[in-house]
Q: What sequence folds into this?
């Protein structure tokens, strides 16, 4: 099979020296890549500079959610993949604007005094052009960062290549299994995924990784280590490829 | 000599899966650590999980600016160091509060309608207790993060151990050398440092690293690679130790 795997966590720049980073060691993706490669499958691997890399695979490196969207669009338009395993933790938000608190408050106050609502004033502040700082000042007592949603990368995959199989991931933190599976099922439907690997951060560690494999009709498998997750995905992909 | 070296970049949690991270590969610190260790000096090394580590030294790992302050306070109260080389890029800001935009706007609007100023409303919003999210919702169109200043770690060092020599670092982005040296000199005076290594991000790369060594009477040396920076610091510390 020809596989596209994404892994690691994206970063969104605040300025030249600071970013908002999604934590993801990349270890699970590396285990998946190595496992599929050892079985003779062809793996295209997209990850980030700081992630753990799979042995024997030259990765494509990206940084932000926007980079990832561009990279996957390019790959999926040029090559046909039997499956996409999208394990990367993608930033939901990127930085729209940053303000020292005093500047932010003064701008809102000026508009409010002109009779505008806080909402109108806030929107105008976002709309006003402002160049991104090279390095934000460290003088202000508080800093206000306004973040905006990034494009949902997982939703692009089946639109760009409807024939591929898509395995997505859903990570929640300290929830009941029923909620985790419900949220994973919603993601599966919304993104036209074939399976979602549903996991909870409280059950993820280097040597342990509990996950449910959620399909259109509910949970079809369960795994307790990264190696077991790799074998679980291998089973469903090879089974359906027959 | 007995040296304390800090290196890498701290991270400040937004929630359990996202952080604001200061970029710093840790390569310069690793080069410094290895160089001083090879010369027979005793090195205590504080860094972060993701930083490049020096060979042959077991580091103490910290994550946030607050962790670092606690770690250095502990070390400087217990042990006497001939010098502290504080190369770590420490977060200036940590997350005070996060709000979905709608909630933030509605709270300000309610207070403004009661006759409060935007500033009073903003301060009240920050003062209101709110538990930190385990994972912030990805539903809001915009998210407002209010950041607050972290304690200035470099300022603690000479207060805790007045007899040590302190070498600090100042990184700016794309400025004239005169401005860089001026800002470094101000940092030297403010933090009672003996030297500041002043560098510009546009001149920092794995194989190249331009830096000025700024002392109380101005620039005393200049280096162009990480190895040269290590040798430059070694010269001034060994010279003065005589």
A:
């Amino acid at each position: 099979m020809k596989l596209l795997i994404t892994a690691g966590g994206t970063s969104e720049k605040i300025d030249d020296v600071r970013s908002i980073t999604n934590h993801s060691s990349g270890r699970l993706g590396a285990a998946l890549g190595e496992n599929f490669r050892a079985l003779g499958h062809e793996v295209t691997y997209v990850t980030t500079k700081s992630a753990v890399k799979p042995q024997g695979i030259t990765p494509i490196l990206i940084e932000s959610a926007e980079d990832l969207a561009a990279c996957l669009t390019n790959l999926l338009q040029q090559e046909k993949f039997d499956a996409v395993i999208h394990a990367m933790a993608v930033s939901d938000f990127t930085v729209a604007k940053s303000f020292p608190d005093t500047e932010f408050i003064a701008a809102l106050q000026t508009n409010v005094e002109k009779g505008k609502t806080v909402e109108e004033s806030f929107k105008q502040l976002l709309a006003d052009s402002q160049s991104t700082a090279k390095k934000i000042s460290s003088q202000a007592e508080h800093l206000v960062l306004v973040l905006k949603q990034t494009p949902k990368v997982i939703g692009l995959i089946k639109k760009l290549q409807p024939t591929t199989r898509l395995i997505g991931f859903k990570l929640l933190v300290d929830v009941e299994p029923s909620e985790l599976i419900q949220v994973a099922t919603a993601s599966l439907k919304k993104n036209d995924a074939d399976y979602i690997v549903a996991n909870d951060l409280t059950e993820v560690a280097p040597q342990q990784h509990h996950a449910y494999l959620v399909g259109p009709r509910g949970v079809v498998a369960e795994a307790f280590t990264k190696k077991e997750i790799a074998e679980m995905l291998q089973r469903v992909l090879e089974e359906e490829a027959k």
